[in-house]
Amino acid sequence: MNYRADIQILRGISVVLVVLFHLGFSSIKSGFLGVDVFFVISGFLMAILYKNNDISGFYLRRAKRLLPAYYATIFFTLIFSYFLTTPNETAQVNEQALYAVPFLSNIGFWFQDSYFSNSHFNPLLHLWSLGVEIQFYLIVPLLYWFFTKLKINYWLTMILSLALCFIMVGFSPKTSFFLVPFRLWEFLIGYGAAHFLTNQGNVKYTKYKWLGLIGLIVVFIIPLLSVSGEARSAVNGHPGLYALFVSLATATVLAFGIPSLIERSYISKVLEKLGKYSYSIYLAHFPVIVIYLSKPFDGTNLTIPSLQDGITLFILVCIASALLYYFFEHKRSKYSIKNYALTASALLIGLVLVLPSVQNEFYSEKELLIFNASSDKGPFRCGVVTQKLEKFITSCDLTSDIEQSEENIMFVGNSHSDSVKEHFTELAIKNGTKLFIPISNTFLSKGTARPKVVVDDSIENKVSKIVIHSSPDSISNETINEVIKLSKSAGIKVYFIEPVPVWDKNIPTYMYKKMKGENQPTIQKTKEDYLSENADQIRFVRSINDDNFISFPIVDYFCAPECRYVSKEGKPLYFDKHHLTTTGSYQLSDVFTKILKD
Questions:
Q1: Is 314 in the same domain as 408?
Q2: What is the pLDDT of residues 510-546, one digit of tens each?
Q3: How far is 199 from 201, CA to CA, in rounded Å?
Q4: What is the pLDDT of residues 141-160, one digit of tens each?
Q5: What are the backbone dihedrals phi and psi of residue 318, each rounded to the nearest 5 degrees, phi first?
Q6: CA–CA gap between residue 521 and residue 534 (Å, rounded)
Q7: Closest CA to 554 of 438, 355, 416
Q8: How far is it, in rounded angstroms, from Cα 81 to Cα 91?
Q9: Is the terminal CB of the chain with fewer CB neighbours within 10 Å at N or C?
């Protein structure tokens, strides 16, 4: 294939969209669609570059192209994280690096929250797309063989992947976002454009370049529209119809090119130059932004506080991208790529194992107790894999090691019940009791309450007790009454654990800032404050006169009379403003024990 400036222009557009989106430019509402453009380009190039009789050569060329800058990005992100952030943040970078080394970043982030959540510190989040891309490269020889068997196999594979993607968006948007089977169709659109509409990647139908111009305009315009990464709909969710339009538009440019007048314009020349550096820019920009804007316990902060910070970030991204390009992407190593990859992998894993201990030496024991709050919790609900089955199952067994039990309990509520379930599970196992939890945290919440679903599932699991615990004012009185009514007719007893005290500030952040001597208002709450804040719900549940219902006050376990947010040992009882850590959940030991023994 001859050199094609339009491909570099597409790359330039893509990386600009992604970087501006991450910099928080409000006009670039869906800049993440730039990654979809990259996927289509990769599929297009693989159709040209792969030779059936040279599988090892194909892998070798891909490795030389991608791995030096890729591993350098992980290395420098680790190093700068250790020097510029706290152990709370670096622990998260460590985990991301362990997934990134074997090209499984997309799997690691699939286990986490969605791409659009900022609750975790994720300077290596952008490597998810490299994970998808490299995994695609690994199956290119298999796909090539499969497509040459029957021409229809290509179309069947692409349509099946597209259909599965659009269906999965309705169930789990992040599954269709992160996993290769649901992204394969984008690569195959590019593959098809090369295979059917070009002459080995060179433009065949030159008189249709106006179609390529239309495609280029579409690639520019669609990312300016609002696309929801969380929506469970193929129409306005992602990857959905907008991703399909962008992919088809990209394929149109690749198939037909763009008019020479446009290609020679000044803007196109700038975009072409950016396209040349696009891989290094993509790798460098996100860690620079996230680490520069990082604050302890603040997750991934992408809010630029001032114009000066914005200018500084722009300069840092330019410098980091240039260094990465000239010293790693563009520079040809004298070592074999196999040795380079093995050495880099061993070095990175070694850093992950050694540097945390080194970093901890610079912090006091009290500081380390605060940093541990973020990890002082169990997995979300039923675990990420089971969570994907939300549309098909209602609850999961937290005590699956118990084969037979005399009693089964359903523990229901929102994220507050989830945050304390680990200790409840521990006590249930000791008591020989099975403990179930709904796969969703919204079954009793206002606006989404489905008490009949909870009770029906409890009946199916032979539950004798339903335990309710949720955040303040998140469950309506009508829902509580409905659960009691339905449970009574099924012979199930209902227990209500009153809500825990909540705070106006993130507790670990507050404790750390206070320890560092930063001037901030003191947070304080008394037993009287708690009872006043929760007066309506407490009054209601304590007034219920039903032998089938028991309400458990918890205020005295936290407030005597000053409400506590830290243990006697200095461990935070909360990992944010209102969710208990596993340490904090031990404050409810007496309540859990009473329920188990009742």
A1: no
A2: 999 999 888 888 899 999 999 999 999 999 999 999 9
A3: 5
A4: 999 999 999 989 999 999 99
A5: -60, -45
A6: 23
A7: 416
A8: 10
A9: C
Distance of CA 555 to the CA centre of its chain: 35
**Residue 239 falls within a domain, yes or no?**
yes
Distance CA 223, CA 467 (A): 46
Taking only Cα atoms into account, the Rg of the chain, rounded to an integer number of angstroms, comes to 27
Q: Which of 128, 407, 95, 489 is nearest to 286 (CA)?
A: 128
Parallel, antiparallel or unpaired: strands 434-438 and 395-397: antiparallel
pLDDT in tens, 387-441: 555 556 788 889 988 888 889 999 999 999 999 999 999 999 999 999 999 988 8
* Structural domain includes residue 364: no
Vertex 68 angle, CA 40 and 9, to 5°? 35
Are 306 and 410 in a shared domain? Answer: no
**CB-count exposure of residue 233 (10 Å: 0-12, 13-18, 19+):** middle
By DSSP bridging, strand 202-203 and strand 408-412 are: unpaired
Is residue 454 exposed (0-12), middle (13-18) or buried (19+ Cβ within 10 Å)? Answer: buried
Nearest 10 degrees: Cα torsion 487, 492, 493, 495: -70
Q: Is 553 left (phi over 0), alpha (psi -120 to 50) or beta?
A: beta
In a shared domain, residues 333 and 425: no
Amino acid (1-letter code) at residue 206: T
CA distances from 345 to 68, 90, 128, 172 (A): 11, 18, 17, 32
Query: What are the structure tokens assigned to 49, written together?
Result: 């570059």
Q: Which residue type is seen at 223?
A: P
Quickly state the pLDDT bin for 488 (edges 50, 70, 90): very high
Structural domain contains residue 362: no
Last residue of a domain, one of 299, 327, 357: 357
Q: Which residues pair with 374 in a beta bridge?
A: none
Strands (E), 113-235: 198-199, 202-203
Note whether 445 and 342 are same-domain residues: no
> Does the N-terminal peptide bond of residue 305 adopt cis geometry, omega within 30 degrees of 0?
no
d(CA 460, CA 437): 13
- How many Cβ atoms from other residues are within 10 Å of residue 405's Cβ? 16
Residue at 363 is within a domain: no
Domain span at residue 196 reads: 5-357
Q: Are residues 350 and 380 in the same domain?
A: no
Query: How many structural domains comprise the chain?
Result: 2
Query: How far is residue 423 from each of residues 41, 331, 467, 500, 593, measured CA to CA in Å?
Result: 50, 54, 14, 15, 11
Burial annotation 92-105 (CB, 10 A radius, 16+ → b, else e): bbbbbbbbbbebbb
Q: Are residues 352 and 379 in the same domain?
A: no
Select from 200, 189, 206 the least CA-distant residue to 246.
Answer: 189
